[in-house]
Write a structure and sequence with these properties.
alpha/beta; Rossmann fold; seven-stranded mixed beta sheet; 9 strands
């Protein structure tokens, strides 16, 4: 399975941040697509043969580069020094030991994101779209109504990949480390600048916030799917994460490295009329620290 040559140091102990040395290839940028030659308009001067003339093929839309290629353009602002410092600017080290912040190394890779989308998000989205056809790719109409959120989004690479490769029209990234947040915002601007056709009609909302205070953002944006790499969360923070996801009425799917707090989930079920989030299954996705990293999947009960 392929791997990016990059590391992630995610604030909040979740999500992802891009860390690698990347260089812009001279073949990419605004002029990466070369149109086909124009169809001749003059009549032939020779007598046609019995074999019909070939008709030039003109695609209606230029072919899209894959996300790995797009990253080489979008993330040129991530330099080696920033990577060596653990995705931190000088002076940000103290933030990694602040309450509710767990800086850690590790991220679900691009193939893992694709597997997660096909096996979790699309099946969750299909009943909402009332489509019965099985998904054949990541992109489609099934997931057009999904609002995806990466808690601990780092420099935003998971959000960017979701918007680039799926039918999802809005992604939300929550990150507490300022430099990671700023680089995520720049990545989005570069994506829109260099690949306007890929991101047309889509939006990405990056917020510099603590996980425990982000409920209003998730409610405002109508988040329906939450992804969080919570492997390093302690029990108290897992409790805060559980309270967060159950406090957002639109959330119907949660993908988390550590399981949510069952007692809090049961308490919400008893005290409210909301459909409870129940653990649906345990799945494994490829990541840079493990070819088969476990993730707990919760969805709202029927």
């Amino acid at each position: 399975m392929s791997r990016q040559y990059w590391r992630i140091a995610a604030g909040l102990g979740a999500g992802a941040a891009f860390s690698a040395t990347v260089a812009v290839s001279s073949g990419y940028g605004p002029s990466w697509y070369t149109p086909a030659p124009a169809i001749p308009t003059t009549a032939p001067t020779t007598t046609p043969t019995r074999r019909p003339a070939a008709v030039p093929f003109h695609p209606t839309d230029p072919p899209r580069p894959n996300y790995e290629t797009m990253m080489q353009v979008i993330y040129t602002h991530i330099n080696p020094l920033y990577d060596e410092l653990g995705q931190l600017e000088l002076g940000e080290e103290e933030l990694t030991v602040a309450p509710n912040v767990f800086a850690q190394i590790g991220v679900i890779d691009t193939d893992g994101v694709r597997s997660m989308w096909r096996s979790v998000v699309l099946p969750f989205a299909r009943p909402l779209s009332r489509l019965e056809a099985p998904p054949t790719s990541m992109a489609g109409h099934d997931d057009a109504g999904v609002v995806f959120c990466d808690l601990g989004s780092g420099v935003g690479n998971v959000c960017m990949q979701v918007l680039a490769e799926t039918g999802c029209r809005k992604a939300v990234g929550i990150e507490v480390i300022p430099s990671r947040h700023h680089r995520a915002t720049e990545a989005w601007m570069r994506g829109v600048r260099f690949f306007p056709a890929v991101f047309e009609g889509k939006s990405c909302v990056f917020k510099q916030e603590d996980l425990t205070t982000s409920a209003s953002t998730l409610i405002k944006e109508g988040v329906s799917v939450v992804f969080v790499h919570s492997w390093m969360f302690d029990d108290d923070l897992m409790g805060e994460l559980t309270k967060l996801v159950v406090s957002v009425p639109s959330v119907g799917c949660v993908i988390t490295s550590r399981p949510l707090n069952d007692a809090i989930l049961e308490s919400v079920t008893r005290e409210t009329n909301r459909r409870p989030l129940v653990q649906h299954r345990l799945l494994h996705f490829s990541a840079d620290w493990n070819d088969s990293a476990p993730f707990h999947v919760y969805t709202t009960a029927p």
